[in-house]
């Protein structure tokens, strides 16, 4: 609990004289397979990480909020309940500000707070640091304000924040997996029905290795919204033949084959990715349940290839990692994870091969891009929670 002690010491440094402090945690997440399917009403298979965002918070008697972060010590964010507006200069602080705005819009009786954050997941790497910040804020303040702390509702609040306050048209996967994560399990989510199933994740002698391209990508500045619009155009065209389809995930492979010639070449590729990726997720869940980790790994590779060729969201840096990793000894699966346009890959590597994997990938990637990658051995952890002196609530 040394981390928590340091967090509380730092809180008291910034906000002295207040001992009524509570601590909350929300993980980052890594998506194992099922990319760009969530906002199309489809299937995803993420897992929560053991790393994430910690929040120490104490309520105030006025309407003022004071936000500080160990990760951005020079940025001081102050605002009141009367000025909950997006400001570019507030950077990461817009996420908690947006959450507070959503809580206020929902009619919650709230007041100001002093809040201190510490995150140990790489910002902008595609491991959902923004959803982690949003969820820990929404979950923590819901408890502090004695509001209903239903995880699904909190996830929807945070999705609304991303969509309406930040202006990024994300699906629900990130917030949902941060909320419902469980140690040693993946989360099979049906984003259309907002239901999930926990799937045991037995890696045996293998490890998840996350590799960061160190090419930071900002979702709002990327082609994320463009891809979503392309999917919507594809759905409208398909509905002329199949009006029963409410989302692209209602389109079967057989339907796609019958209507694909009606779609322009670009839209056709986008739709093909969504339809085939949904099938890969269903197959991946089946393989995990049967303990077929190597077959699961092959599905990861196929997912990356579809994201590269049909959805076109990988780019030079992610493809350089993918090409270097898929031929490494002991690597049975690898793919980009997250929205793309930079960020991370996730690989399944035999524990005995991890050192040689890192060395080989580093050398190949540096020679191609001039950038040095970072590697993280990924442990699967629990979802959002409160942390007390006695342990976890």
UniProtKB/TrEMBL annotation:
Mg(2+) binds at residues 130, 162. Substrate binds at residues 35-38, 224. This is Galactokinase. Residues 285-366 form the GHMP kinase C-terminal domain. Its EC number is 2.7.1.6. It catalyses: alpha-D-galactose + ATP = alpha-D-galactose 1-phosphate + ADP + H(+). Residues 10-58 form the Galactokinase N-terminal domain. The active site is at 174 (proton acceptor). It comes from Scopulibacillus cellulosilyticus. The keyword Cytoplasm applies. One of its GO terms (molecular function) is galactokinase activity. ATP binds at residues 69, 124-130. Pathway: Carbohydrate metabolism; galactose metabolism. Residues 96-181 form the GHMP kinase N-terminal domain.
